[in-house]
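We store amino acids, tokens; thus:
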Amino acid sequence: MIAGIVPPFLLDRLARTDDPRLARAAAAARKTLAVARPPRPTRTRLRLSIDGDALVAETAPAPDRIISDAGNTENLPGRRVRSEDDAASGDAAVDEAYDGLGATYDFFWDAFARDGIDAAGGSLLATVHFGDDYDNAFWNGERMVFGDGDGEVFIGFTRSLSVIAHELGHGVTEAAGGLEYQGQSGALNESLSDVFGALAEQHHLGQRADEASWLIGAGIFAPDVQGEALRSMKAPGTAYDDDVLGKDPQPGHMRDYVETDDDNGGVHINSGIPNRAFYLAATALGGNAWERAGLIWYRTLTAGTLSPTADFTAFAAATLAAAVAEYGEESEEVAAVRAAWAGVGVVEDAAA
């Protein structure tokens, strides 16, 4: 499974523009769409914390990051340019990828005691400067790959921690058993990566659920683009409204579900529905979103009981089961999860 963060319908809109101001971006989108993405071919650290007046030292797993540079070619993995414990390279994309992978690793360990993508301390592999004006980032089954963008619409995918964590999240989903990248299971696959992307960013910034932007891909658009991010988990359909890119097509409720054969059955479009369900659950529970809502979604993914072809209804039922197992049938967590799925029309509202 190869999953890119920029949906093909957005690249297609950009590829077909005849606006002379975006000639380079249009050409870049056409090249990006034409690229055949290549197939997939224990460390510890000392952490210090303060407990009252005491300084506490403990050992914890550490990431093993390996960043490579494709040199604006489509050859993977590229030339190794920074490994664990190396000094900053001075190349912004290299160092952003390195730091972003570290922040995402810390999130998964601190929130779920997960040691990397495979939960066994495997290396975190990433390639930057992929392709010529390549307008996407993707997980290819082995590594995270980041283009530089075209400079007119997209200005670099390593600039956003939520993008880096999104791609690493695809690896976690695959390692946990996977969700078929088609239709509703594919939309859930995309949504889980958005959930992990948002949570990694919130964890890094120390934000509570009510303080967060809930945006995915903020900072990757050029200043002239009329939009703030690729997606909004809080308000699907509002992330951008641009003359060239069009309006964000994501629905936030099942009544607006998009039936399409494009985009693997709308995986990047209909992911707005489970995205908003997670937002509703997380903000209803409050506090740090990764502590309760995030744990429930993570338990759902990693329990080993989720079908690779699960649809929204099956996933909602699985999150409720995970919430019951973790917190009890009468808990506020179960009530919040049930209300969230009802709020997006996936389950019936028990209060109705």
Q: What stands out?
A: Residues 200 and 306 are 23 Å apart (CA to CA).
